[in-house]
Amino acid sequence: MGTYAKPLRTIGTALLFTVAGIASAGTITGSPHDFSTQGWSGGQICVPCHTPHRANTTVADAPLWNHALTAATFTLYGSPTLNATIGQPSGGSKLCFSCHDGTVAINSFGGTTGTTFIGTGDKVGPDLRSEHPIGFTYDAALVTADGSLKATTTAVTIGAGGQTRTGTIASNLLFGGKMECASCHDVHNTFTNGGKLLKVANAGSALCITCHSK
Ligand code: HEC
Ligand code: HEC
Ligand code: HEC
Ligand code: HEC
Protein backbone atom coordinates (compact mmCIF):
# COMPACT_ATOMS: atom_id res chain seq x y z
CA MET A 1 0.00 0.00 0.00
CA GLY A 2 1.36 3.41 -0.91
CA THR A 3 0.26 7.00 -0.92
CA TYR A 4 0.08 9.10 -4.03
CA ALA A 5 3.17 11.29 -4.39
CA LYS A 6 2.99 14.51 -6.37
CA PRO A 7 6.47 15.71 -7.45
CA LEU A 8 5.86 15.08 -11.17
CA ARG A 9 2.88 17.40 -11.25
CA THR A 10 4.81 20.21 -9.57
CA ILE A 11 7.29 20.10 -12.45
CA GLY A 12 4.54 19.63 -15.03
CA THR A 13 2.51 22.55 -13.74
CA ALA A 14 5.53 24.85 -13.67
CA LEU A 15 6.30 24.01 -17.30
CA LEU A 16 2.69 24.40 -18.31
CA PHE A 17 2.46 27.91 -16.95
CA THR A 18 5.87 28.99 -18.23
CA VAL A 19 5.61 27.58 -21.72
CA ALA A 20 1.91 28.26 -22.21
CA GLY A 21 1.81 31.37 -20.04
CA ILE A 22 -0.38 33.16 -22.55
CA ALA A 23 -3.20 30.69 -22.35
CA SER A 24 -4.67 30.40 -18.87
CA ALA A 25 -7.34 28.20 -20.42
CA GLY A 26 -7.15 24.86 -18.69
CA THR A 27 -7.17 21.26 -19.76
CA ILE A 28 -6.87 18.07 -17.76
CA THR A 29 -3.42 17.48 -19.27
CA GLY A 30 -0.79 18.24 -16.63
CA SER A 31 -3.46 18.88 -13.98
CA PRO A 32 -3.68 16.98 -10.66
CA HIS A 33 -6.10 14.56 -12.35
CA ASP A 34 -3.71 13.65 -15.18
CA PHE A 35 -2.29 10.30 -14.07
CA SER A 36 -0.82 9.44 -17.49
CA THR A 37 2.74 9.60 -16.11
CA GLN A 38 1.91 6.90 -13.55
CA GLY A 39 2.85 3.40 -14.68
CA TRP A 40 -0.56 2.04 -13.70
CA SER A 41 -2.47 4.27 -16.16
CA GLY A 42 -0.91 2.77 -19.27
CA GLY A 43 -0.09 6.33 -20.34
CA GLN A 44 -3.77 7.25 -20.66
CA ILE A 45 -5.61 10.19 -19.07
CA CYS A 46 -9.32 9.33 -19.06
CA VAL A 47 -9.20 5.61 -18.20
CA PRO A 48 -8.88 5.81 -14.38
CA CYS A 49 -12.33 7.47 -14.40
CA HIS A 50 -14.10 6.63 -17.70
CA THR A 51 -14.44 3.76 -20.15
CA PRO A 52 -16.27 3.71 -23.50
CA HIS A 53 -17.66 0.21 -22.79
CA ARG A 54 -18.90 -1.94 -19.90
CA ALA A 55 -19.01 1.03 -17.53
CA ASN A 56 -20.11 0.81 -13.89
CA THR A 57 -23.75 1.91 -13.68
CA THR A 58 -24.16 1.61 -9.88
CA VAL A 59 -24.30 5.39 -9.43
CA ALA A 60 -27.34 6.80 -11.24
CA ASP A 61 -26.46 8.92 -14.28
CA ALA A 62 -22.70 8.34 -13.86
CA PRO A 63 -20.74 9.33 -16.99
CA LEU A 64 -19.40 5.95 -18.23
CA TRP A 65 -17.69 5.34 -14.88
CA ASN A 66 -14.64 3.06 -14.75
CA HIS A 67 -13.39 3.53 -11.17
CA ALA A 68 -14.17 1.30 -8.21
CA LEU A 69 -16.75 2.98 -5.95
CA THR A 70 -16.56 3.68 -2.24
CA ALA A 71 -18.74 1.62 0.10
CA ALA A 72 -18.29 4.04 3.00
CA THR A 73 -21.16 5.42 5.10
CA PHE A 74 -20.58 9.15 5.42
CA THR A 75 -21.04 11.25 8.55
CA LEU A 76 -22.97 14.27 7.28
CA TYR A 77 -22.47 17.99 7.93
CA GLY A 78 -24.91 19.52 10.37
CA SER A 79 -25.51 22.83 12.16
CA PRO A 80 -28.47 24.57 13.81
CA THR A 81 -28.58 27.22 11.05
CA LEU A 82 -28.42 24.79 8.13
CA ASN A 83 -31.66 24.79 6.16
CA ALA A 84 -30.68 22.32 3.46
CA THR A 85 -31.68 18.67 3.73
CA ILE A 86 -28.55 16.64 3.22
CA GLY A 87 -28.44 12.97 2.27
CA GLN A 88 -25.72 10.39 1.73
CA PRO A 89 -23.51 11.49 -1.21
CA SER A 90 -24.74 10.49 -4.66
CA GLY A 91 -24.16 11.62 -8.25
CA GLY A 92 -20.90 13.32 -9.12
CA SER A 93 -19.80 13.67 -5.48
CA LYS A 94 -20.07 9.92 -4.96
CA LEU A 95 -17.74 9.61 -7.94
CA CYS A 96 -15.19 11.99 -6.38
CA PHE A 97 -15.24 9.83 -3.24
CA SER A 98 -14.10 6.90 -5.43
CA CYS A 99 -10.64 8.29 -4.63
CA HIS A 100 -11.00 11.19 -2.19
CA ASP A 101 -12.46 9.46 0.89
CA GLY A 102 -9.29 7.39 1.04
CA THR A 103 -11.07 4.02 1.30
CA VAL A 104 -10.47 2.94 -2.33
CA ALA A 105 -7.08 3.02 -4.09
CA ILE A 106 -6.79 5.62 -6.85
CA ASN A 107 -5.52 2.89 -9.19
CA SER A 108 -8.51 0.59 -8.61
CA PHE A 109 -10.28 0.87 -11.95
CA GLY A 110 -11.33 -1.23 -14.93
CA GLY A 111 -11.79 -4.23 -12.66
CA THR A 112 -8.26 -4.18 -11.18
CA THR A 113 -7.53 -3.50 -7.52
CA GLY A 114 -4.73 -1.01 -6.87
CA THR A 115 -2.65 -0.21 -3.80
CA THR A 116 -1.95 3.56 -4.09
CA PHE A 117 -4.15 5.71 -1.88
CA ILE A 118 -4.77 9.45 -1.93
CA GLY A 119 -2.49 11.57 0.27
CA THR A 120 -3.87 12.95 3.53
CA GLY A 121 -3.75 16.54 2.19
CA ASP A 122 -6.26 15.66 -0.52
CA LYS A 123 -8.42 13.32 1.55
CA VAL A 124 -12.04 14.47 2.06
CA GLY A 125 -14.43 12.26 4.08
CA PRO A 126 -15.92 9.87 5.01
CA ASP A 127 -16.46 12.24 7.98
CA LEU A 128 -18.04 15.28 6.29
CA ARG A 129 -18.80 17.29 9.43
CA SER A 130 -15.78 19.49 8.71
CA GLU A 131 -16.48 20.02 5.00
CA HIS A 132 -18.70 22.47 3.08
CA PRO A 133 -22.06 20.66 2.75
CA ILE A 134 -22.78 18.87 -0.54
CA GLY A 135 -25.52 16.53 -1.76
CA PHE A 136 -28.64 18.68 -1.36
CA THR A 137 -31.07 20.65 -3.49
CA TYR A 138 -30.36 24.40 -3.84
CA ASP A 139 -33.61 25.96 -5.06
CA ALA A 140 -35.87 28.97 -4.50
CA ALA A 141 -37.29 27.43 -1.31
CA LEU A 142 -33.79 27.09 0.17
CA VAL A 143 -32.96 30.67 -0.85
CA THR A 144 -36.02 31.87 1.06
CA ALA A 145 -35.34 29.68 4.09
CA ASP A 146 -31.68 30.70 4.33
CA GLY A 147 -32.28 34.43 3.81
CA SER A 148 -28.82 35.26 2.43
CA LEU A 149 -28.34 32.91 -0.49
CA LYS A 150 -28.41 34.26 -4.05
CA ALA A 151 -31.15 33.15 -6.43
CA THR A 152 -30.10 30.23 -8.61
CA THR A 153 -30.85 32.41 -11.65
CA THR A 154 -27.96 34.75 -10.70
CA ALA A 155 -25.43 35.11 -13.54
CA VAL A 156 -22.09 33.33 -13.02
CA THR A 157 -19.14 33.07 -15.40
CA ILE A 158 -16.79 30.18 -14.73
CA GLY A 159 -13.26 29.71 -16.05
CA ALA A 160 -10.63 32.19 -17.10
CA GLY A 161 -8.52 33.31 -20.04
CA GLY A 162 -9.56 31.78 -23.33
CA GLN A 163 -11.94 29.28 -21.77
CA THR A 164 -14.97 30.66 -19.98
CA ARG A 165 -18.61 29.70 -19.85
CA THR A 166 -21.33 32.16 -19.04
CA GLY A 167 -24.49 30.99 -17.33
CA THR A 168 -26.19 31.00 -13.97
CA ILE A 169 -25.67 29.37 -10.59
CA ALA A 170 -28.15 26.71 -11.74
CA SER A 171 -26.53 26.02 -15.12
CA ASN A 172 -22.85 26.37 -14.18
CA LEU A 173 -22.68 25.29 -10.54
CA LEU A 174 -25.55 22.89 -9.84
CA PHE A 175 -26.11 19.32 -11.03
CA GLY A 176 -29.77 18.39 -11.38
CA GLY A 177 -30.41 21.32 -9.05
CA LYS A 178 -28.01 19.97 -6.42
CA MET A 179 -24.90 21.30 -4.75
CA GLU A 180 -22.01 18.86 -5.26
CA CYS A 181 -18.19 18.86 -5.09
CA ALA A 182 -18.24 19.98 -8.71
CA SER A 183 -20.24 23.10 -7.76
CA CYS A 184 -16.90 24.58 -6.75
CA HIS A 185 -14.38 22.32 -8.55
CA ASP A 186 -13.92 21.38 -12.20
CA VAL A 187 -12.62 17.81 -12.20
CA HIS A 188 -11.25 18.22 -15.76
CA ASN A 189 -9.54 21.57 -15.06
CA THR A 190 -11.27 23.00 -18.16
CA PHE A 191 -13.20 25.94 -16.69
CA THR A 192 -10.91 26.82 -13.82
CA ASN A 193 -8.94 29.67 -12.38
CA GLY A 194 -5.53 28.24 -11.55
CA GLY A 195 -5.11 26.35 -8.31
CA LYS A 196 -7.32 23.74 -6.65
CA LEU A 197 -9.41 23.22 -9.79
CA LEU A 198 -11.73 26.05 -8.73
CA LYS A 199 -14.41 27.18 -11.18
CA VAL A 200 -14.32 30.72 -9.75
CA ALA A 201 -11.03 32.08 -8.35
CA ASN A 202 -11.37 32.63 -4.63
CA ALA A 203 -9.39 35.88 -4.25
CA GLY A 204 -11.42 38.10 -1.92
CA SER A 205 -13.58 34.99 -1.32
CA ALA A 206 -15.18 35.58 -4.75
CA LEU A 207 -16.20 31.92 -4.98
CA CYS A 208 -18.08 32.09 -1.67
CA ILE A 209 -19.96 35.28 -2.50
CA THR A 210 -20.99 33.78 -5.82
CA CYS A 211 -23.73 32.05 -3.81
CA HIS A 212 -23.73 33.68 -0.38
CA SER A 213 -24.83 37.33 0.03
CA LYS A 214 -22.51 38.03 2.92
C1 HEC B 1 -10.22 11.94 -12.01
C2 HEC B 1 -11.40 11.44 -12.67
C3 HEC B 1 -11.68 11.90 -14.08
C4 HEC B 1 -10.83 11.92 -15.15
C5 HEC B 1 -9.38 11.52 -15.20
C6 HEC B 1 -11.62 12.33 -16.28
N1 HEC B 1 -12.91 12.58 -15.88
FE1 HEC B 1 -14.48 13.05 -17.06
N2 HEC B 1 -15.72 13.16 -15.46
C7 HEC B 1 -15.34 12.88 -14.17
C8 HEC B 1 -16.47 13.09 -13.29
C9 HEC B 1 -16.47 12.90 -11.79
C10 HEC B 1 -17.53 13.51 -14.10
C11 HEC B 1 -18.96 13.85 -13.65
C12 HEC B 1 -19.24 15.32 -13.76
C13 HEC B 1 -18.64 16.11 -12.69
O1 HEC B 1 -18.84 15.78 -11.51
O2 HEC B 1 -17.96 17.11 -12.99
C14 HEC B 1 -17.02 13.53 -15.46
C15 HEC B 1 -17.79 13.88 -16.58
C16 HEC B 1 -17.34 13.78 -17.88
C17 HEC B 1 -18.14 14.05 -19.04
C18 HEC B 1 -19.62 14.46 -19.05
C19 HEC B 1 -19.82 15.85 -18.49
C20 HEC B 1 -18.98 16.88 -19.17
O3 HEC B 1 -18.16 17.51 -18.48
O4 HEC B 1 -19.06 17.04 -20.42
C21 HEC B 1 -17.34 13.88 -20.14
C22 HEC B 1 -17.72 14.05 -21.59
C23 HEC B 1 -16.03 13.50 -19.64
N3 HEC B 1 -16.07 13.45 -18.27
C24 HEC B 1 -14.95 13.24 -20.45
C25 HEC B 1 -13.65 12.98 -19.99
C26 HEC B 1 -12.51 12.77 -20.87
C27 HEC B 1 -12.56 12.77 -22.38
C28 HEC B 1 -11.43 12.55 -20.05
C29 HEC B 1 -9.99 12.34 -20.45
C30 HEC B 1 -9.42 13.37 -21.35
C31 HEC B 1 -11.91 12.63 -18.68
N4 HEC B 1 -13.25 12.91 -18.70
C32 HEC B 1 -11.14 12.43 -17.57
C33 HEC B 1 -14.11 12.45 -13.76
C34 HEC B 1 -12.98 12.34 -14.55
C1 HEC C 1 -18.21 25.50 -1.50
C2 HEC C 1 -17.13 25.21 -2.38
C3 HEC C 1 -16.49 23.86 -2.29
C4 HEC C 1 -17.09 22.62 -2.29
C5 HEC C 1 -18.57 22.30 -2.35
C6 HEC C 1 -16.02 21.66 -2.26
N1 HEC C 1 -14.80 22.29 -2.22
FE1 HEC C 1 -12.98 21.42 -2.24
N2 HEC C 1 -12.08 23.23 -2.04
C7 HEC C 1 -12.74 24.45 -2.09
C8 HEC C 1 -11.77 25.50 -1.96
C9 HEC C 1 -12.06 26.98 -1.96
C10 HEC C 1 -10.51 24.87 -1.86
C11 HEC C 1 -9.15 25.56 -1.71
C12 HEC C 1 -8.80 25.70 -0.26
C13 HEC C 1 -7.48 26.38 -0.08
O1 HEC C 1 -6.75 26.60 -1.04
O2 HEC C 1 -7.18 26.66 1.09
C14 HEC C 1 -10.74 23.45 -1.91
C15 HEC C 1 -9.75 22.49 -1.83
C16 HEC C 1 -9.94 21.13 -2.09
C17 HEC C 1 -8.91 20.13 -2.17
C18 HEC C 1 -7.41 20.38 -2.01
C19 HEC C 1 -6.95 20.05 -0.62
C20 HEC C 1 -7.39 21.07 0.36
O3 HEC C 1 -8.08 20.69 1.34
O4 HEC C 1 -7.08 22.27 0.18
C21 HEC C 1 -9.51 18.93 -2.43
C22 HEC C 1 -8.84 17.61 -2.61
C23 HEC C 1 -10.93 19.19 -2.51
N3 HEC C 1 -11.16 20.52 -2.29
C24 HEC C 1 -11.86 18.21 -2.78
C25 HEC C 1 -13.24 18.40 -2.66
C26 HEC C 1 -14.23 17.33 -2.70
C27 HEC C 1 -13.92 15.86 -2.91
C28 HEC C 1 -15.44 17.91 -2.52
C29 HEC C 1 -16.78 17.24 -2.37
C30 HEC C 1 -16.90 16.36 -1.22
C31 HEC C 1 -15.22 19.35 -2.40
N4 HEC C 1 -13.88 19.59 -2.48
C32 HEC C 1 -16.23 20.28 -2.26
C33 HEC C 1 -14.10 24.63 -2.22
C34 HEC C 1 -15.04 23.64 -2.24
C1 HEC D 1 -9.17 8.56 -9.89
C2 HEC D 1 -9.13 9.16 -8.57
C3 HEC D 1 -9.76 10.52 -8.40
C4 HEC D 1 -11.06 10.91 -8.65
C5 HEC D 1 -12.19 10.07 -9.17
C6 HEC D 1 -11.14 12.31 -8.29
N1 HEC D 1 -9.92 12.74 -7.84
FE1 HEC D 1 -9.45 14.60 -7.22
N2 HEC D 1 -7.52 14.06 -6.93
C7 HEC D 1 -7.05 12.77 -7.02
C8 HEC D 1 -5.66 12.74 -6.60
C9 HEC D 1 -4.76 11.51 -6.54
C10 HEC D 1 -5.31 14.07 -6.28
C11 HEC D 1 -3.97 14.59 -5.80
C12 HEC D 1 -3.13 14.82 -7.03
C13 HEC D 1 -1.92 15.64 -6.79
O1 HEC D 1 -1.91 16.46 -5.87
O2 HEC D 1 -0.96 15.50 -7.55
C14 HEC D 1 -6.50 14.86 -6.49
C15 HEC D 1 -6.56 16.23 -6.29
C16 HEC D 1 -7.73 16.96 -6.29
C17 HEC D 1 -7.83 18.35 -5.93
C18 HEC D 1 -6.69 19.26 -5.49
C19 HEC D 1 -6.15 19.99 -6.69
C20 HEC D 1 -4.95 20.84 -6.39
O3 HEC D 1 -4.70 21.76 -7.17
O4 HEC D 1 -4.25 20.58 -5.39
C21 HEC D 1 -9.15 18.69 -6.03
C22 HEC D 1 -9.74 20.04 -5.76
C23 HEC D 1 -9.86 17.51 -6.46
N3 HEC D 1 -8.97 16.48 -6.62
C24 HEC D 1 -11.22 17.47 -6.64
C25 HEC D 1 -11.92 16.38 -7.15
C26 HEC D 1 -13.33 16.38 -7.43
C27 HEC D 1 -14.24 17.54 -7.16
C28 HEC D 1 -13.63 15.15 -7.93
C29 HEC D 1 -14.96 14.66 -8.43
C30 HEC D 1 -15.73 15.57 -9.32
C31 HEC D 1 -12.40 14.38 -7.95
N4 HEC D 1 -11.39 15.16 -7.47
C32 HEC D 1 -12.29 13.07 -8.40
C33 HEC D 1 -7.75 11.67 -7.44
C34 HEC D 1 -9.06 11.67 -7.87
C1 HEC E 1 -22.55 27.04 -5.43
C2 HEC E 1 -23.02 27.83 -4.31
C3 HEC E 1 -22.13 27.95 -3.10
C4 HEC E 1 -20.82 28.30 -3.03
C5 HEC E 1 -19.88 28.60 -4.18
C6 HEC E 1 -20.47 28.33 -1.64
N1 HEC E 1 -21.56 27.99 -0.89
FE1 HEC E 1 -21.63 27.82 1.13
N2 HEC E 1 -23.48 27.04 1.00
C7 HEC E 1 -24.27 27.04 -0.11
C8 HEC E 1 -25.58 26.55 0.22
C9 HEC E 1 -26.73 26.41 -0.74
C10 HEC E 1 -25.55 26.22 1.60
C11 HEC E 1 -26.69 25.69 2.46
C12 HEC E 1 -27.35 26.89 3.13
C13 HEC E 1 -28.48 26.54 4.06
O1 HEC E 1 -28.75 25.37 4.32
O2 HEC E 1 -29.13 27.48 4.54
C14 HEC E 1 -24.21 26.55 2.06
C15 HEC E 1 -23.75 26.38 3.36
C16 HEC E 1 -22.63 26.99 3.87
C17 HEC E 1 -22.28 27.06 5.26
C18 HEC E 1 -23.01 26.38 6.40
C19 HEC E 1 -24.14 27.25 6.87
C20 HEC E 1 -24.82 26.69 8.07
O3 HEC E 1 -25.86 27.27 8.43
O4 HEC E 1 -24.36 25.70 8.67
C21 HEC E 1 -21.15 27.82 5.36
C22 HEC E 1 -20.44 28.25 6.63
C23 HEC E 1 -20.76 28.18 4.00
N3 HEC E 1 -21.69 27.65 3.13
C24 HEC E 1 -19.66 28.90 3.66
C25 HEC E 1 -19.15 29.00 2.39
C26 HEC E 1 -17.81 29.47 2.06
C27 HEC E 1 -16.79 29.95 3.08
C28 HEC E 1 -17.69 29.39 0.72
C29 HEC E 1 -16.48 29.69 -0.12
C30 HEC E 1 -15.29 28.86 0.13
C31 HEC E 1 -18.95 28.87 0.19
N4 HEC E 1 -19.80 28.66 1.24
C32 HEC E 1 -19.24 28.68 -1.16
C33 HEC E 1 -23.87 27.41 -1.38
C34 HEC E 1 -22.60 27.77 -1.74
Helix content: 10-25%
Largest sheet, order of strands side by side? 1-2
Topology, number of strands: 6
What ligands are attached or bound here?
A: heme C
Element-level helix/strand string? EHHEEHEEHEH
Task: Give a written overview of the molecule.
Helices cover 18% and strands 9% of the residues. The protein contains five helices and six strands; from the N terminus they run E-H-H-E-E-H-E-E-H-E-H. The strands form three sheets. A two-stranded parallel ribbon has the order 1-2. A two-stranded antiparallel ribbon has the order 3-6. It has a two-stranded antiparallel sheet with strand order 4-5. Bound molecules: heme C (4 copies). One heme C is lined by residues 93, 96, 100, 121-122, 124, 131-132, 134, 181, 183-185, 196, 198, 202, 207.
Task: List descriptors.
alpha+beta; two-stranded antiparallel sheet; 5 helices; binds heme C
Quickly describe the structure.
The protein has 214 residues and is α+β, with helices and mostly antiparallel strands. It is 18% helix and 9% strand.
List the helices and strands and how they pair.
Elements: E1 2-3, H1 7-19, H2 91-100, E2 116-117, E3 136-137, H3 140-146, E4 155-160, E5 163-168, H4 169-173, E6 178-179, H5 208-211
Parallel strand pairs: 1-2
Antiparallel strand pairs: 3-6, 4-5
Bound molecules: heme C (HEC) (4 copies).
